[in-house]
Design a protein that fits this description.
Elements lengths: L36 H15 L2 H12 L5 H10 L2 E9 L3 E8 L5 E7 L10 E6 L6 H15 L5 E7 L2 E8 L16 E2 L5 H13 L26 H5 L16 H6 L3 H8 L17 H14 L3 H13 L19 E2 L9 E2 L15 E2 L1 H10 L8 H7 L13 E3 L5 E3 L2 E3 L2 E8 L4 E7 L4 H10 L11
Antiparallel strand pairs: 1-2, 2-3, 3-4, 5-6, 5-15, 7-10, 8-9, 11-12, 12-14, 13-14, 14-15
Length: 470
């Protein structure tokens, strides 16, 4: 339930191979009628995308790109309402680059197609991405996408964009319960899924700063009665960067309802999982782990002498002024928007996600916060009020795990960012700070994968393609 489906922002974008092509602009009619297999592929692609028909788009990608579920292309077909050719930038017998006008969004998208050999029908490159927009164009395009998703009942939630300490955009959509008349606002608490792992990381690092926990100490130093001796050797650092082999919790899956009904506390989660050893030698590889953060929560409780939720309230929410955040149990979610799920495409009909919710949020995620509160969290972190600057820097830079710091998803280079998404049945969260442009993007949603979609809409229209040559 709290598994992060796409830890890196670029994960949903089809990778493009480098293919040297001319930089000249070609006239619109340059490929008006298919004359080569590449022309035919382009026209077939455009016809499929403009049909808006999911099956036709999937059939094209299956035949020409060995991709039976092209999620990004399906979303772009919906968001853009289809494309018209603006102009061809370059074209040879084996490659083409074309700029496309979107029918219901501002700006252009760039399509690159290439085959290994002239006459091939299978594409070696199929790369579609929006081009950057000036000023606040990326925000306006994202709002248009959000508006249409909300109109179709596919988005209920909130978005905030802040740059250099100033709020550029803030809006909310939908109702806490459909038909209730209670609108979601920027202060409405929403389920966080795995984004809550940031609170666990900050809590552990606060105890490190206080000299009460050591990053490279085994958890057995603090959890002295831990059942499995091999798991007890895993270090705090290895749990923070998902290199401990701790695995999952056993209560978050759709088919784990029996465990979910009887397991409520961190101690009960350890009783359920404590007998097993690490799934691989700790430190030898990276594998995203929810149970690892349960163990970190247990360390927080043991060292601080406080319940996990109480510690986070006192040491993170209160100092940051996060008045609409907490860990309500399943019987006290009246103020939290009801999530709707299709179980990530396993069924066509949307249903409430209540049957898949654990009893309460935990150290692995699942608490609640409002969009305004998440903005306060990101605003407070750099001030030193929650963490010493050197520990925040350590947490938000890649280490042994290239896409993860210590409890924070990270990205390096010209698009450097840190934060943490959260994806679960009927909830989706994208909260990231982009250091190179000093901008924070916050999206909290009560639908499957919707904030991933919206942060992509903004991100791809904000940062130029890495291979852009003009």
């Amino acid at each position: 339930m709290f598994k992060m489906i796409t830890p890196m922002l670029a994960a949903l974008v089809l990778a493009s191979s480098s293919c040297p092509i001319a930089a000249q602009d070609l006239p619109l009619h340059a490929s008006a009628h298919p004359t080569t297999s590449l022309d035919a592929a382009f026209h077939a692609w455009l016809t499929a995308i403009n049909s808006g028909n999911r099956a036709e788009i999937q059939a094209f990608y299956r035949q020409h790109a060995d991709d039976p579920n092209p999620l990004f292309a399906l979303e772009q077909a919906e968001d853009s309402c289809g494309f018209e050719v603006d102009h061809f930038k370059a074209k040879t017998s084996t490659s083409m680059e074309v700029l496309l006008r979107q029918k219901c969004l501002p700006g252009l998208q760039r399509l690159k197609l290439a085959v290994a050999n002239a006459g091939d029908s299978k594409l070696k490159t199929l790369d579609l991405r929006p081009m950057p927009l000036p000023d606040n164009g990326a925000i306006q395009a994202t709002r248009l996408v959000a508006d249409r998703l909300a109109q179709r009942g596919e988005f209920a939630g909130a978005i905030i964009v802040e740059r250099e300490g100033k709020r550029l955009f803030a809006a909310s959509w939908g109702e806490v319960r459909p038909g209730s008349g209670r609108a979601i606002t920027l202060d409405t608490p929403m389920l966080l899924a795995s984004s809550g792992k940031m609170f666990t990381a900050v809590s552990i690092l606060q105890l490190v700063a206080a000299g009460k926990v050591e990053l490279d100490a085994p958890i057995g130093r603090y959890l002295t009665e831990y059942p499995n001796a091999e798991m007890a050797k895993v270090t705090i650092r290895q749990l923070l960067n998902h290199r401990g082999g701790a695995g999952d919790i056993g209560i978050l899956g759709r088919d784990e309802g029996a465990n979910r009904a009887r397991v409520r506390t961190l101690a009960e989660m350890i009783q359920l999982n404590g007998g097993r050893p690490p799934e691989f030698p700790p430190g030898s590889k990276t594998e995203y782990s929810n149970y690892g953060f349960i163990l970190l929560g247990a360390v927080i409780e043991r060292v601080s002498g406080m319940a996990y939720a109480d510690y986070v309230q006192a040491h993170i929410f209160a100092p940051a002024g996060m008045a609409h955040s907490g860990f309500p149990d399943r019987d006290h979610l009246d103020e939290v928007p009801l999530g709707f799920t299709r179980y990530f495409g396993e069924q066509d009909a949307k249903v409430p996600n209540t049957d898949t919710l654990p009893w309460r949020g935990s150290a692995a995620g699942g608490g609640v916060a409002s969009a305004n509160d998440m903005a306060l969290f990101f605003e407070t972190l750099p001030t030193g009020k929650l963490l010493p600057p050197e520990l925040l820097k350590l947490a938000t830079m890649a280490g042994d795990t290239p896409w993860y710091g210590l409890g924070f998803v990270v990205n390096s280079g010209s698009e450097a960012s840190w934060g943490h998404g959260g994806t679960a049945y009927g909830m989706d969260v994208a909260v990231h700070h982009y250091a190179t442009i000093d901008t924070t993007f916050i999206c909290l949603g009560a639908n499957d994968m919707v904030c991933n979609r919206l942060i992509f809409a903004w991100f791809l229209r904000t940062f130029p393609p890495g291979d852009q040559d003009d």
